[in-house]
Design goal:
It is a single chain. By secondary structure, this protein is of the alpha+beta class. It has helices at about 5-20, 60-75, 90-100, 110-115, 220-225, 245-255, 260-270, 285-295, 300-305, 320-330; strands at about 20-30, 35-45, 45-55, 130-145, 150-160, 170-180, 240, 245, 315, 320, 335, 345-350, 355. The strands form five sheets. A four-stranded antiparallel β-sheet has the order 6-5-4-11, with helices on one face. β9 and β10 (about 320) form a beta hairpin. About 40% of the residues are buried.
């Protein structure tokens, strides 16, 4: 062989050998929001690149995990790394997808990898379930056009599954708000009082004008209660600034997944207004909220901007204390597999209506580091 060609031939052989040992693999696992797919480059037994190709995770919750877990896997050359606090399921989904790419069939099954919200099959004694209720009454909001007081009450209900470290695996929150019939909303559940009290001012069409009094009968008493609906049940009829109440609480539930109750308290203290319990937003005209916003990091501001595109309602105000209901769920938790007596926290809207199970002590109305203020929850 020509001596001049020998170095070129050796380089070509080395290049071909390297190409033969390098390969790009693909794996998919189930994240919290659905399938998550990664691309993994391997050079022999070494992981040389990890890229998330597609996912359906919520950026405000999972963004840190989506960025850091691939970096950790690459640095450690292993798919077994520490999860990101607050994004447990996304972290595990990335790890499982990488494992699936490297060794097909080794990734955790989807049924045990992500919460489905449809049951607790497959969860063992390392998990606990809790059901919490927080009730509050209100003199208000406001008065009707005859200067008669409006009254209301709220019942916030939280069902949650916790892992052995106290982190929320899955959570479902709902709320019942009931007002006197002079409240100017045609969809608000009503309560006129008990029969024999003469009825109450009635804004029959929700126009802001009282048109008389509700019938003072047993039939009206039973009918009002039978028509009570939770805020989730009110669906599209309960619209707020950035969507329905259901859409907003779904966003907050995704924020809470992977957090302990203490971490939820911290999130509330750091990222919500001390005045009204709403998530902070840029451009607030309130000096206290603006000052609190300005102290946040750019990453925190980005996270909140993402959250507030779909959730701006209060987590603790005169319309109900959602944080306290989560506390109560944690306090009432029972290990899975034991006889818990937990029957859910929904309402049974019949003339003999009942409200879920009786729950033990309710935490104080104000969550740690907050005060209860009137608002638009």
């Amino acid at each position: 062989m020509n001596k001049k060609l020998l170095p070129l031939a050796l380089c070509l052989v080395a290049l071909l050998t390297a190409c033969a040992s390098a390969e790009t693999l693909s794996g998919t696992a189930e994240g919290y929001g659905g399938p998550l797919t990664v691309s993994v480059m391997m050079d022999g037994s070494n992981i040389t690149a990890v890229e998330i190709v597609s996912h359906n995770e919520t950026q405000s919750v999972a963004g840190t995990a989506l960025e850091k877990i691939p970096q950790e896997i690459l640095a450690k050359n292993s798919a077994d790394v520490d999860v990101v606090t607050g994004a447990t399921y996304t972290s595990r989904a990335i790890m499982n997808a990488v494992k699936e790419a490297i060794n097909p069939g080794s990734g955790a099954p989807a049924a045990t990898n992500a919460p489905t919200g449809t049951g607790t099959a497959g969860l063992g004694s390392d998990y606990a379930m809790g059901s919490g209720i927080h009730t509050s009454g209100r003199v208000g909001p406001g008065k009707d056009n005859t200067d008669t007081q409006i009254y209301s009450f709220n019942v916030v209900m939280a069902n949650a599954i916790f892992d052995k470290d106290g982190r929320i695996v899955d959570i479902h929150i709902d709320q019942l708000e009931v007002a006197t019939p002079n409240y100017d909303s045609a969809t608000m559940p009503q309560f006129s009082g008990f029969p024999g009290q003469g009825g109450y001012n009635w804004d029959k069409n929700g126009t802001g004008t009282v048109e008389g009094k509700t019938p003072d009968t047993d039939e009206n008493f039973l009918d009002e209660i039978s028509r009570w609906k939770t805020k989730r049940d009110r669906g599209e009829t309960y619209k707020m600034n950035t969507g329905t109440w259901t859409q907003q609480i779904d966003t907050f539930e995704r924020v809470f997944i992977g957090k302990t109750v203490a971490e939820i308290d911290e999130w509330f203290r750091n990222y919500c207004s001390d005045r009204n319990g709403r998530p902070l937003k840029a451009g607030s005209e309130d000096a206290q909220d603006a000052a609190k916003w300005d102290k946040l990091s750019d990453q925190d501001k980005s996270m909140l901007a993402d959250v507030t595109t779909s959730a701006t309602m209060s987590l603790n105000d005169a319309h109900g204390n959602i944080i306290a209901a989560i506390h109560a769920a944690y306090d009432n938790r029972v290990q899975m597999g034991q006889e818990s007596g937990l029957g859910g926290t929904g309402t049974n809207n019949t003339p003999a209506a009942t409200m879920g199970p009786t729950v033990a002590p309710i935490v104080p109305t104000a969550a740690p580091g907050s005060t209860v203020n009137p608002g638009n929850g």
